[in-house]
Amino acid sequence: MSKSINVRTPSGNYEVLVGSKLLEDYNFKWLVQNRQVLVVKDSNVPNKILENLSISLDNSEAKQVEIMEIETSEKNKSFEGLMPIFEVLNSSKFNRDCLLIGLGGGITTDMVGFVAASYLRGVDLIQIPTTLLSQVDAAIGGKTGINFSGSKNNIGAFYQPKLVLMDTDSLKSLSKLDFVDGLAEIIKHSLIADKNLFTKLENIFLNDKDLSDAELTQIIYESSLIKAFVVSNDEKEKSDRALLNFGHTYGHAFEAIQSLEGFSHGQAVGLGMICASHLSLLLEKISSEEFEKIKNLIKSVGLPHELPDNFNEDDFSEAMSRDKKILNKKLRFITLRGIGSAEITEDPPDDLVLKSINL
Ligand code: GLY
What we know:
There is one protein chain. The protein is an alpha/beta fold. The protein has two domains: 3-173, 3-Layer(aba) Sandwich (Rossmann fold), CATH 3.40.50; 180-356, Dehydroquinate synthase-like - alpha domain (Dehydroquinate synthase-like, alpha domain). It has helices at 22-25, 29-32, 47-59, 79-91, 106-118, 132-138, 176-193, 195-205, 213-233, 248-256, 265-282, 288-300, 313-326, 350-356; strands at 2-9, 12-19, 36-42, 64-70, 99-104, 124-129, 143-148, 151-158, 163-167, 332-336, 342-346. The strands form three sheets. It has a seven-stranded mixed β-sheet, with helices on both faces. Strand 3, helix 3 and strand 4 (64-70) form a beta-alpha-beta unit. Helix 5 crosses helix 6 and helix 11 (265-282) packs antiparallel against helix 12 (288-300). The structure holds glycine. Glycine (GLY) binds at residues 137, 141, 143, 237, 241, 244. Glycine is lined by residues 137, 141, 143, 237, 241, 244.
């Protein structure tokens, strides 16, 4: 059984499906029949997942199916990394009516999305995210792109897919770390928009329960519903979509500094969410009980909840001020107004920001 979400944006509406056995059972015919299809697969995706997709595509009467694999590292998320994809499209004479399928984690869906946005000025796209992080974050909302000259995701386009399939079976092969990375974004969605989801997560993770398949589908669905709602209301991040950056202003700084090298995105965001909640507490927008509850949930899923001993505050301030320069000297923090509600706080005083990282 799968659950469906409709994303409605000015540049197009599409369905997001969440459930198990989707790659085996989904009937792609309406999108694939008589078309040239290129599947771009993340090299980390197990072959079994690709096999299931290939069988479904064959049954859907595609005119031509090409499959290629890409290396998915932040380094390869670059112009050079895109070239082989454009080369296959070009050498196989893919026309404007072709269809691209991104099969993999967030790096893959971001890269393939950008190719779809730009090849022949835009061709159709299906996103099949296979990690928890890409399911609940990257694959919904049409942000696509690559890294350039040391900055992340600074070249890209908003480009909405025609369909997003989140097959929960593909999560079975994930490492604990990859899984926890996705949980960070699910917690984020609950904190900014859904107190009931937060309580549900507390019931699962504070009691150290094993997550059943049904619970997993449900929390991915509820989390994706929040993301879909936010991007439906603000596709191009002119206002409320910025709330999805809760924990990310700190997180990006943490990802950039030496003493936290090796931190994954989810770990940096987890810690960032604790700091952003602490800032909310210092600004008297949440209570100390709420702060403790947030910290406990983040800790209970296995995300870091304190800074390492060798953490260097000067490095942190420098990373923050680098961002400040890019953003015209204003830093934008997302703060909470209670659990389940968030708002933008522009440029809080530096001393308060420094205080907020002392956990
Ligand atoms: N990951 C934040 C957004 O999609 O806007």
